[in-house]
Amino acid sequence: MKVLALDTSNRPLSVALLEDQTVLGTVTMTVHQKHAEYLLPVIEDLMAKSDLVPADLNRVVVAQGPGSYTGIRIGVTTAKVLADTLKIGLVGVSSLQALALNCQRDGQLVWPIFDARNNNIFTGLYRMKGGVPESVLADQHVDFDDFYRQVDALAETVYVIGDGTHFADKFNDNYLLANSVDNLPQAARLGILGEKLQLVTDVNDFVPNYLRLTQAEADWKKQHPEEDAGSYVEKI
After folding, report:
1. Nearest C-alpha neighbor of 171 from the set 152, 188, 190, 192
2. 235 pLDDT band (50/70/90 cuts)?
3. In angstroms, how far apart are the furthest CA atoms of the chain?
4. Edge-to-edge strands of the sheet including 158-162?
5. Less Cβ crowding at N or C end of the chain, within 10 Å?
6. For 140-172, b where at least 16 C-beta lie within 10 A, e where not — what string?
7. How many CA atoms lie within 13 A of 42 on its CB side?
8. Residue 236: what pLDDT?
9. Other C-beta atoms lying within 10 Å of the C-beta of residue 70
10. What is the 3-state secondary structure (H, E, C) of the chain?
11. Nearest to 38 by CA among 69, 11, 67
């Protein structure tokens, strides 16, 4: 199986090509957040250097959020277009779960964090099992201190990954902060996980997982207070 994996959910851009869980090529960029400009050229370059054409692909795996609204939209839209055009499988993976893959210590609690400003975070808590992060506390947009109390109550050693350094002064000795490399998404790991997961049943219904309202969605809600929230992504 030939797999293209994409993660544009935050500032880093990470793309990988794999065949039967063997990495053919991967690129991770941190110097620019111009995903709309760089994503397709990076994909094309990796394909060319791997002697592949789009028709060779069997599956595309994408980090579908949470994270940067713009970044998520770019990645999800690109993945959907490729899956629909090439008639191949599509898999969506939580961006937080994808980042947690950088910890491969079995049984370890992993706390991925994306800074959402004003002491808010996008986060979840995972435990590594057989190389796969399994959810312990669901992905959410939450106040850091509130989530910290939930994690601390478990009284275990926790590997903190992502933007944990932004809150370094709040952690006690049970918390281990990841190094700079582990704080970056690795599309190769995302692709390996995506080979094992179920495909999206309807590509057209696949949408980003923002975990909080965008400004446009908040405005829509104010204008339609009587309507059920449902999926705001489809209403805008």
Report:
1. 152
2. very low
3. 54
4. 132-143, 120-129, 109-115, 158-162, 175-177
5. C
6. bbbebeebbeebeeeeeebbbbbbbeebeeebe
7. 26
8. 36
9. 12
10. CEEEEEECCCCCEEEEEEECCEEEEEEEECCCCCHHHHHHHHHHHHHHHCCCCHHHCCEEEEECCCCCHHHHHHHHHHHHHHHHHHCCEEEEECHHHHHHCCCCCCCCEEEEEEECCCCEEEEEEEEEECCEEEEEEEEEEEEHHHHHHHHHCCCCCEEEEECHHHHHHHCCCCEEECCCCCCCCCHHHHHHHHCCCCCCCCHHHCCCCCCCCCHHHHHHHHHCCCCCCCCHHHHC
11. 11
Residue 214 has pLDDT above 50, yes or no: yes
Which pLDDT tens digit goes with each residue over 201-212?
A: 999 999 999 998
**Mean pLDDT for the chain overall:** 93
Tokens of 96: 């937080």
- pTM of the predicted protein model: 0.91
Q: How many Å apart are CA 82 and CA 4, to the nearest integer?
A: 10
Q: What region does 120 belong to: left with phi over 0, alpha with psi -120 to 50, or beta?
A: beta
The residue type at 152: D
Rounded Cα distance, 210 and 187, in Å: 19
